[in-house]
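Researcher: Re-running this chain for the archive, since the previous output was lost when a drive failed. Same request as before.
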Amino acid sequence: MTHPNTRRPDTPATAGAGLRHAATAPDVLVGDGGTAVHHLVEPSGAEGLFGLFRLDLGPRPGGPAPHFHHTMSETFFVLSGNVRLYDGRHWADTGPGDLLHVPRGAVHTFRNDSGEPASMLMLVAPGVPRAPFYEELARIVSDGHRPDPQEWADFYRRHDHHIA
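Model: Regenerated structure tokens:
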């Protein structure tokens, strides 16, 4: 593994540093009282190297089915509350400061079964366009349409989200 190409010292970045205040409203709300998704660092702002999101999980039990991704790794870092993390073999009850790194192709998932809000960071690398997954999911949930199995399969395939 080598370092990526460097930017010449006399060549400034195309965009300046970006500050996002903690009180900034979420970018996407998935369901009423469900998950608030904050796009903290968009892949385009990180030269495609990574994307960073904060997921504020509502108190209602839930989370995605076990799944994997072909094009990205994900790393979850619990900020607050209790989140159940699945590494493809075992479930772990986790709290603030706990981390799960998921390489490409590894089965994983998360759930908030605590009945209390929880929050975690999700780092995706490389910086694939993950925001559209949450935006489309929010539209599906909000419009009341219940996709049939083929529509779900198409949705997941478009977003490199493969049910295990």
